Automatic annotation (TrEMBL):
Keywords: Oxidoreductase. The keyword Iron does not apply. This is FMN reductase (NADH) RutF. Residues 26-173 form the Flavin reductase like domain.
Length: 174
């Protein structure tokens, strides 16, 4: 059965989909699961993210979206650096830990994997499918999220393994 979601007009005549309807629609869009990690003068933090995409290959740039209310948001901005670590099929527990499941302290979350560094000092997950090491170049605030543009200064290619994706509010392997 197909269900249509329609947009309701706002008072200012702009049309937008309600938040809960947008989240439901987006749950049907499969996305790779990544761990964002950052370390610097503001501390070491990490978070599970799925909103990551390439922007340009010259200069090598990607973007990641972080909820503005997330504790890690300001710390990442203050550090000025971050890594994106793309997870493989058997990283479900790691993803859940960095998503906040179990309310583990941040340092305990980092004990769930083996971590190194590349150029910026941001944590790089050694078992990641691929890791990108980035300097923040620009941040744009859009609604509830910060869109963080990172210039990629180094990358680490991991082993080919099935990727972990999130689709229909569940993990899958591709």
């Amino acid at each position: 059965m197909t269900t249509a979601i329609t947009m309701a007009p706002l008072e200012n005549n702009n049309k937008t989909l309600a938040s809960h309807e947008f989240r439901e629609a987006m749950s049907r869009l499969g996305a790779s699961v990544h761990l964002l990690a950052s370390a610097g003068h503001a501390g070491r933090v990490g978070a599970t993210v799925s909103s990551v995409c390439s922007v340009s290959d010259s200069p090598a740039t990607l973007l990641v979206c972080l909820n503005r209310s997330a504790r890690v948001n300001q710390i990442v901005k203050d550090n000025g650096v971050f890594s994106i670590n793309t997870l493989v099929h058997d990283h479900t527990d790691l993803s859940n830990a960095f998503a906040g499941e179990g309310d583990l302290p941040m340092e305990e979350r980092f004990t769930k994997g083996n971590w190194g560094t590349l150029v910026t000092g941001s944590p790089i997950l050694e078992s990641a499918r691929v890791s990108f090491d980035c300097h923040i170049k620009e941040v744009t605030e859009v609604g509830t999220h910060s869109v963080i543009f990172g210039e990629v200064v180094a990358a680490r290619l991991g082993e080919f393994a099935p990727a972990l994706i999130y689709l229909d509010r569940n993990y899958h392997s591709v």
